[in-house]
Amino acid sequence: MSLRLALLPRALLARLRGPGLTGHLIAVAAGALSTLAFAPYNLWPFALLSIALLYQSLLQLDGRQAALRGLAWGLGLFVSGVSWIYISIHLHGNASPLLAGFLTGGLEFGLSLLIALWAWVWVRFLRSGNAWSDSLSFAAIWVVQEMFRGWFLTGFPWLYQGYAYTHTWLSGWAPLGGVWLLGALAVCSACLLSEWRLLRRPAQAGMALLLIASFWLGGLALQQVNWTQPKGEPLSVNLVQANIEQSLKWDPDYITHTLSLYRDLTYAQPATDLVVWPETAVPVLQSQSQYFVDGIAANLAERGSTLITGIPVDEMDPEGLRIYNGITVGGSQPQSQYLKQKLVPFGEYVPLEALLRGLIDFFNLPMSSFSRGPADQPPLLAAGYRLAPLICYEAVYPDFAAKQAAQSDLLITISNDSWFGRSIGPLQHLQMAQMRAIEAQRWMIRATNNGVTALIDPHGAIRARIPQFQQEVLIGEVQPMQGLTPYLRWRSAPLGLVTVSVLLIVALRRRRQNAR
After folding, report:
1. Is 340 assigned a catalytic role?
2. I want to staple 80 with a disulfide (CB 3.0 to 4.6 A). Which of 35, 48, 310, 451 is the partner?
3. Residue of 146, 188, 195, 340 marked active site
């Protein structure tokens, strides 16, 4: 990516850095390249090239032009990377193709505006003309924008740059600073590699390459560090993937078949320590189905097995009936269960419900009135161990998952990705689950309705899996772990402090330079 950005023709490089339409089109293509770096493609060098192109394209633009360039890059990333949302809205939300396209495009445009904002901020307040300062500040502001995107309006923490490096040497840094640290190191590497201002000077080039090598070789060395240790004996597990069609999942006429299917698939397998059913595997309110869950749990207990299942939990409080997306340990006394805290907008609750509910079918999906579970819930207790529960979307929030994992010996996530059909969405979701296992250095049990059901080891490797869209049961072993990685102990606070410090120092230095 050095040598004038991989030997790009001089005229094309000039257009990349210029404010014209060609530069914006290159930025769109560059953003789309990032999608190829994530699952299922895993072509991680494209992420470095994508960032390098964006960085170089911003070096000579003013603030307004930089915002447009950032918008173009963001559209390339999000249109190519999260287009699977269209499937949920059109096929399962019964929206017309035009309306589904409009709503999906609106989300993609909104996400791209965040990239535009940060591009403007970097050019307006941070870009100094010094290659070292520019590379470091660009990496720092990249971390800030990803953290902000994971928080703003409940967050959309998808397509973080760090996920592209899940299977590279850089992943060794994940137990220290999580996916955001991987992203920071990768973005800084891409900027430095593209900096001909440094690379045309031998001494400066040597320093840049030495720093980049320390990132990657340091990650390789850190992969050999065991931050956690085995606790007790391994547990045998049985994960049931029933492959229920989303269109049938909440159909009252199909519920008996669904429950019978889970029961029969479970009983047909040899006894294991844990039996796990996916998100809302029991498609009936807990008050009406607890007898079924307890009955299955009691039968399994006679074989030495413990049932864990997803189930909608209904509770009465002074404000009326509340329904939660829950996960429960069958037959536990006192009952061990967890109520989902991070809800999916429109899928599990409707923002501005009084205005939107009923306008179109998409705003009236089945079970789209879930309430948010309380904070600081204890981990699940099953088979003598503590399990950190993450229901579907919760597994994509790095700090949230780390808080849960720090209290637990194993990670367990249940999901229903049938909303996204045969798109790349479920495979991106799986990659994020792998990163959570690396950050925590704990085994993850991942049970889904239609894939990908998997067992993931503390280094993010998939030890066993069931392919998508197959009705099957996965049997394997997981090892409970004890001890805390630095990321579980402090989460993103140290990285946030460093990035904010870098940005403040760079901004103050630029202000002093401009004042001279």
Report:
1. yes
2. 35
3. 340
